[in-house]
Known about the structure:
By secondary structure, the chain is α+β, with helices and mostly antiparallel strands. The chain contains 3 helices and 4 strands. It folds into 2 domains: 1-60; 64-163, no CATH class.
Amino acid sequence: MKNRIFMYLFIFSVLVILFQYVNSKNIIEDYDKRLTAYEKMEESYADSLKFLEDKNFDLAKFSLDYNDDAMTYFEDKGYEISQLGPFIKDELYKLNDYEGDDHPIVPYASMTGNKMMINSIRLLNHRWIIADFSDGKYWGEMLLRYEILNKEELKFETLDYLLYRQ
């Protein structure tokens, strides 16, 4: 009788061990599959990140923030670069607050009854700005020349412009 109990315990122990082995093997295989999938995703994300970094570098090429010669020009004149960019943009955006129908810089009058407004600005260097404008329905872009007359006064001149067709 004792031999049978030991035999049943032995068989039961072998079955439990076999069950745990199969279960652990399935869990490890599942983890391995997920790890492989994550590694592939990581590789594709790294490729995407590299592509976006290259694209960002190309876009930053024509920007005052990355133009050493333009920054040196302003530093030689005694301007603080970190405050100059926001100052120029603020002065240009202040021109959106105007009376009448004609914007001081935008060469087109609104065709919808709304005011023409400058929406976004990109400082190219120490002389030029690209800006886009819109009245809510019609939009365009313009190239501006700017000059700092003294520490608190700017002069803007529209060099070229276009209005996109509807």
